[in-house]
């Protein structure tokens, strides 16, 4: 393995371990496993095209069975709501309940991270973030996975005027809030060549 690739892998693996430790600690206080918190966090940022069990399964990279059992537990605890889709009766839509949103607010998954990031020079933090985003996208696309990017960074996002947006894929109007959520159908914008 290339030395820099090995260093990236090692650092990201170690950061991932810290994230899992934080999730275990935060979830353990509420009888939840890391996968349950990951599902809640996902539903807090997923748009209306991405709030299905199948999209969650793809995002987490887990089996349908694991995700299904996790969703059953979250629903029984009143942390998520399940609704049939108004247009496609085969689809189930998921949303955080008020209790689920409050739980995420109460457990504060990122306080240590937020504190540490403030100690890094803003320009260095910005560069690190850009590199990690580029690495994530390259790995996702290289493996044939969806990018689940933020709507306003998608090639299908059409800015039609002041606070007026439309999805070029579905032809549906998008609110400003919609454009800030992640989307299963996200296609990264092509970088313009100069």
TrEMBL record:
GO terms for biological process: response to stress. One of its GO terms (molecular function) is DNA-binding transcription factor activity. Gene3D superfamilies: Winged helix-like DNA-binding domain superfamily/Winged helix DNA-binding domain. It is found in: Cytoplasm. GO terms for cellular component: cytoplasm. Its main location: cytoplasm. Pfam families: MarR_2. Residues 5-141 form the HTH marR-type domain. InterPro entries: HTH_MarR-typ, MarR/SlyA-like, WH-like_DNA-bd_sf, WH_DNA-bd_sf. This is Transcriptional regulator, MarR family.
């Amino acid at each position: 393995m290339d030395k820099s690739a090995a260093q990236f892998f090692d650092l990201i693996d170690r950061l991932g371990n810290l994230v899992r430790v934080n999730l275990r600690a935060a979830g353990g206080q509420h009888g939840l496993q890391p996968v349950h918190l990951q599902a809640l966090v996902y539903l807090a940022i997923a748009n209306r095209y991405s709030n299905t069990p199948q999209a969650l399964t793809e995002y987490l990279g887990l089996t349908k069975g694991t995700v299904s059992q996790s969703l059953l537990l979250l629903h029984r605890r009143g942390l998520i709501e399940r609704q049939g889709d108004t247009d496609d009766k085969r689809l189930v839509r998921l949303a955080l309940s008020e209790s689920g949103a409050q739980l995420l607010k109460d457990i504060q998954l990122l306080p240590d991270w937020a504190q540490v990031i403030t100690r890094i020079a803003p320009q260095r933090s910005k560069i690190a973030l850009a590199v990690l985003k580029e690495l994530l996208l390259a790995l996702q696309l290289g493996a044939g996975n969806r990018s689940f990017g933020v709507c306003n960074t998608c090639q299908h996002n059409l800015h039609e005027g002041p606070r007026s947006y439309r999805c070029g894929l579905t032809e549906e109007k998008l609110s400003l809030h919609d454009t800030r959520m992640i989307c299963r159908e996200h296609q990264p914008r092509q970088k313009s060549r100069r």
